[in-house]
Every structure is written in structure tokens, then in C-alpha cells.
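Researcher: Checking consistency across runs. Here is Recombinase-like domain-containing protein again:
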Amino acid sequence: MQELYLNPHQARRRQPTAYEDLLGDSIERAYAAGVHDLAGLVAHLNRTGPNCPAGGVWTEDSYRAEIARLAAEC
């Protein structure tokens, strides 16, 4: 019997952009460092990047909007 599993890339329509890779890597590093709340994640992004695409610093609202935008593209 074939073992079933979720391939994390099975629903993706295209390769991630360099920006998306950087954002994902930064989020993963934040989680690995023990950051698990939105305020901490936003602070991590402001310290390490990537920059907020709208310019300026990341805020909780800009993070939510950017993640919603990226999710809508999937």
C-alpha cells in the first residue's frame, strides 16, 4: 500500500519569488528563535528583513495584509 503524505508544494502554481523566499526564511528563523507571537514576529522582521513591501517598517497590520495578499496568489 502506498503511504499518503502531504507534499507542501502540491498546490503551488509557481515558484516563489526571491522576496517570498526571504520572507519565509525570516519567519522560520523567528520561530526557531522562540518567537511565536505576532508582535515578536513583526519586531524580528524589522530587525532582520526583508523590508515591508509598502515601505517603512513592518506593523501588525502590514504583516496581516501582506500574508493575506500572498495567500490570495496561491
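Researcher: Does this match what you'd expect to see?
Model: One thing to look at in this run: The chain has a mean pLDDT of 90.
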